[in-house]
Predict the 3D structure of the following.
Amino acid sequence: MYQGKVDLHLHLDGSLSEDVIIELLARDGKTMPLAQIRDSIRVPDHCTSLVEYLKRFELPTQVLQTEYAMERAAYDLVERLAAQGLVYTEIRFAPQLHTRKGLSQEQVLRSTIRGVEQAQKDFPTIRAGLLLCSMIGGEGNAETVELAKKYIGYGVVGADLAGAEGSVPIETYYDLFRDLQREQVPYTIHAGECGDPENVRKAIELGARRVGHGCGAIKSESVMDLLARTQTVVEACVVSNLQTKAVLDAKDHPIRPFFDRGIAVTVNTDNMSCSDTTLQREHAVIASAMGFTDAEFLRMDENAINGAFVSEEEKKALLQKLA
Ligand SMILES: [Zn+2]
């Protein structure tokens, strides 16, 4: 079976390993039984909504409040992805969520960059870039955008808008995206996760080169056409979508119609720890529910490389690593 080699949609906090949580708690003089850690971070089978899903981020956020913790988390994640055979990943996080103990967003970012850089030196089979998330309803977004502009090309490859989609209309962030665009910082936007096709249309109109999830697009012929015509990359996260009930049954996931329509869809994990998933698990679920072939999985990895926020030269080199 084809092994996935690219993950473009992966949250640092939602992918924090249990081992690192234990280590970070211990540094703070705390202990917590493994079963309790698991219960705190893993989405239960009876999860009913995205809002409930997002509660799983409290413990990871609580421990990710020091420079050491950010560096360690980033290093550990890249190390695990390299061990799984990935050749490229874009890891996203919101610096403003890690300032509870007094770090500045820039300190948070620099520590994370250090972890990613060291891991790439130690595990040279993988390349990794960072996406800086602004948060829906967040108060530190202007600073995050400034950091994205300052560090683009220096560990940061792009930006994102995350959080509870729909609680604020995404066009509220028009100025933020215009600012990123002006400085040529590419970005993706979480859009259509909870079913609204108009958010996908708006994300494309706001200049997003990629959309996170995009599930809602399936409800609108014109949005499907727009995705295909603009070749906007869709970052599908199937296991996560089943857990948040964005999609109720794997066989109904729009990844199949997206693919068949020629939309540049990709396979991603979203949150390896909260969703208890890996690219391998995503592939297994997608293959068994929708009969994707190895050639089709390879095609989706090619879509991911083509949509990666790297230079054309880097894309060529990465495409060669897929076969
Ligand atoms: Zn996400």
